[in-house]
C-alpha cells in the first residue's frame, strides 16, 4: 500500500512539472515573444594583457588599454543587441 501511494504521488509531481512546462511554452506562443540568443561575446570576459618580464611598464600599459578598448566595444555591441531585443518586444506588444 505504501509503495503504491509513493508511486502515485511521485507520478503526480512529474505530471505537474510537465503541465507547468507546457503552460510556459503555451504562454510564450500566445505572447508572440521570440528572444534570440545573445552573442557569445556578451558572456565572455576580456583578459588582461599578459605581463612580459623585462618589458617596459608603458608597453604593458598600452597593451592593457587596448584590452580595455576591446572589452568596451564588446560591451557596446551587447548593449545594442539587448536594446534591439527590448525595442522588438515593445513594438510587438504595441501591435497587439
Task: Tell me what the structure shows.
The structure is a single chain. This protein has 96 residues and is mainly alpha-helical. The chain has 2 domains: 31 residues; 59 residues. The chain is built from 2 helices and no strands. The longest helix is centred in the C-terminal third of the chain and has 38 residues. The radius of gyration is 25 Å and the shape is elongated. The termini are far apart. The mean pLDDT is 82.
Structural class: mainly alpha
- How would the global form be characterised? elongated
As a whole number of angstroms, the C-alpha radius of gyration is: 25 Å
Q: What oligomeric state do these chains adopt?
A: single chain
Low-confidence stretches: none
Count of alpha and pi helical runs: 2
Along the chain, the helix and strand elements come as HH
Q: Overall pLDDT, averaged?
A: 82
Give a short account of the largest sheet. Answer: none
Q: What percent of the residues sit in helical stretches (DSSP H or I)?
A: over 70%
β content, as a range? under 5%
Number of domains: 2
